[in-house]
Amino acid sequence: MSNHYHLVVHVDAKAAETLDDEAVMARWEQLFALPLLVSRYRAGKLTCETERTVARLHIDKLRRRLCDLSWFMRCLNEYLARKANEEDNCKGRFWEARFKSQAILDEAGLLACMAYVDLNPLRAKIVDTPEASADVSLSARLNSDDTKPALLPFVTQFKDSPKGIPFALADYLALVDWTGRAQREDKRGFISQETPAILDRLGLDADSFLIALGQHQLSRGTVIGHKQAQSAYAKAHHRRHVVGPPIKAA
Questions:
Q1: 15 or 214, which is more confident?
Q2: Element (H, E) at 244
Q3: What is the bridge-based pairing of β-strands 103-104 and 223-224?
Q4: DSSP strand E in 137-225: where?
């Protein structure tokens, strides 16, 4: 969009934990210079065990940062700010405020967020169909090539499936198409009405799902998901309750 962007991010802390020291250093070096002590550790130039211990502690810190959402957003927003300032030939603060994040608790929340983001340009009447926007992941999935960043794939829900989004791509496309056909008073863009079977299979209530995608609804609170998932999340994090958009079961 012209003044903001949305991301649906999967933070894989377990994958980061399995990275060996060399993999951590190699990944970090793609973004920043390694600390001097870590560089010397990597080159085998440390002779003191105390220094090697401190270097490994530094590497552990870098490993945690590789799966830290705040560090991810820091790097991304800094890059965008520098590019924008360069284009405008100016300096100074670019972003109005720090980013906002919400925890996605279940499949309903994941679908709501993905559909909302993929339909953003359509709702703003920038494009006539969701796939016509080059700036959403839906278009990237339909027009994929080796030059674009890899997206988490859609997979079916079987035990031996690889890691990915637990739906079939065809079902997701049907859902986005159906959601985009609903005419909303607060948005100019839409396509025509049709209901896909995926809502029944996932046990989602169609009316509440559309309400959740409405103006100011999806950004409410700190979590996204069914009421049952919100209650379980609150209990697991020792909270009386959590606030999120109204996604109800059918």
A1: 15
A2: none
A3: parallel
A4: 223-224
